[in-house]
Specification:
200 residues, alpha+beta, 15-stranded antiparallel β-sheet, 2 helices
């Protein structure tokens, strides 16, 4: 009987040590799991990637729709998207379409893009294709576009075709005209236009 009492005493003594340690370990795990990064609030695709906790987690075929400050409609889709920081989202194979109030459209296709909430901008990189309903089809290496304004600008040279022929320029800026609902494609930085008359 003495042995049983001794064994029981030893078990109780060990439990007095192990149980508090186990409780401490559980509390530590709970605090670690509850710690999360700042929420992605306004970044496009934020709702889609809200459950992703790291850059290794991603969502497929996210979709975003919003309006600019002048009422133009911006829609964006991508093959995949994943968070890269408190207010950053990286997207692969991004397609953005800006539909103006006058009925015209500008479409941007990029291999990769980073959406930045703090600056309300998207960096389109690794090759960007620009197509407008006015007849321009252009390519550039990189472009930055506002997320809440109808403004976009290439970071370097742009080339392609337009209604009048082939065109090359040091930079392209897409912006509204001063008066009215129209949006203009403004070529700067040494513009070269090779006129090609229309075949009748």
């Amino acid at each position: 009987m003495g042995r049983a009492d001794g064994l029981y005493s030893r078990i109780v003594a060990w439990l007095k040590i192990l149980l508090p340690l186990a409780a401490l370990a559980l509390l530590s795990t709970l605090f670690l799991l509850s710690r999360s990064r700042e929420p992605l609030v306004d970044v496009p695709f934020a709702d889609a990637v809200a459950g992703a906790e790291s850059a290794s987690e991603q969502v497929s075929a996210p979709y975003y729709a919003g309006t600019t400050d002048r009422g133009d409609v911006l829609t964006m889709t991508a093959r995949t998207a994943r968070p890269e920081g408190p207010d950053l989202i990286h997207a692969d194979d991004l397609k953005a379409t800006l539909s103006m109030k006058d009925g015209s459209k500008v479409t941007l296709d990029a291999t990769a893009a980073t959406l930045r909430n703090a600056e309300r901008q998207a960096d389109l990189e690794n090759g960007v294709r620009i197509e407008s309903s006015s007849g321009y089809v252009l390519t550039t290496d990189a472009l930055v576009s506002d997320l809440d304004r109808t403004v976009a600008e290439t970071r370097g040279p742009v080339s392609g075709r337009g209604p009048a022929g082939t065109i090359e320029a040091g930079k392209l800026r897409i912006e509204p005209v001063d008066d009215g609902d129209d949006v203009q494609l403004l070529f700067t930085g040494g513009v070269k236009l090779v006129y090609e008359p229309q075949q009748e």
